[in-house]
Amino acid sequence: MDNFARRRADVELGAESLTPIRTLDERLAAWREVTGRDIGFRELDVAKDYDELCELLQALRPEAVVHFAEQRAAPYSMKSSWHKRYTVDNNVNATNNLLAAIVETGVDCHVVHLGTMGVYGYGTAGTKIPEGYLSVRMDGADGTEIEQEILHPTNPGSIYHLTKTQDQLLFAFYNKNDEIRVTDLHQGIVWGTQTAETKLDDRLINRFDYDGDYGTVLNRFLMQAAIGHPLTVHGTGGQTRAFIHIQDTVRCIRLALENPPQRGERVRIFNQMTEVHRLRDLAGIVQELTGAEIEYVGNPRKEAFENELAVDNQRLLDLGLSPTTLADDLMREVAEIAERFKHRCDRSKIPARSRWVREAEPDMRAERTGRTQAAPAPAGLGSRGHDG
Ligand SMILES: NC(=O)c1ccc[n+]([C@@H]2O[C@H](COP(=O)([O-])OP(=O)(O)OC[C@H]3O[C@@H](n4cnc5c(N)ncnc54)[C@H](O)[C@@H]3O)[C@@H](O)[C@H]2O)c1
Question: Which pTM does this prediction carry?
Fold first, then answer.
């Protein structure tokens, strides 16, 4: 199911994937031709077409539903009040509709949802982010110490991330009330373009977004290097983020599907990431591979200048994930995607237009305290777009 919202956003933004994306009909036909297998499709808005969603669940009675259907760009979610409202309406309703429809139809299916590491806000608490739950000790009313496991506190850095924190509560509620089986995959920023399946035929190639709203940071650096544009690092580049290759994303979803929770088991939360990098180090790696220049620009986001990030991802490793690292595959991405399709790049789409706060000047107070920064991106320079 898809409502083509992502393709419509391209039209709205006047942007296009660096890789040429075929129509869905063409992609489905190519898949059939290459593999002899069918992927069914229904155009449907999960946030709005509730009755059709119920009918489809009733007809298919799936063992599992993989839920991707959300607006996924943090900068897009911060563009204007319309974009904030749209992102909340779309994302929260899509998740609630799916869960309500599963309850209403009585279909016993496992929901695998794509959440984000960004729900935790990239803080600097000095702890390793656990897989969803945190053990806390509290003083009981009678003076004894009480130990409990709670959902790890969230601290979203954008409206997009906020919707993923709301999803967590919806899952916890439907899991407690209706015993819906859920695995929530808290994913890092995806890099890379191809999976083993999309490599089978050029018509199956995935998107490679590089624009200021939807482009993820590493894709943007690679594309900038390919066209001879400086790698635009926001702020100090001291922001640390979690990453995962697109092929590992698919493997993790498969592992989650093959290992469903039991009925009555609490929501499973896996940290779906494989490596952590500081943005300026990431730019340094791309510079070493390509010889590109690095340019530090104002950060349109309101976020910490620097942060540490340590993440526990043991559960997916235990299920058999063997990570593809930057060291394994980055050069191939440079050659096979960024270089090959650089002629399709529209330089005017590189700059970040979306601002987290309305002030025209950098937040000097925050700069002095070193806690957060909120500064406009200088005209003509790029942003770190991300899911993310
Ligand atoms: N790409 C990343 O770096 C990243 C990182 C962490 C999490 N995620 C999450 O993974 C999921 C997939 O991300 P992606 O990068 O493939 O994004 P994407 O935009 O390519 O895929 C999401 C799809 O959902 C569709 N959609 C949106 N709202 C819908 C609705 N109401 N009804 C039906 N379809 C709808 C869109 O048209 C799009 O095709 C998202 O939920 C995203 O938040 C992505």
Answer: 0.91
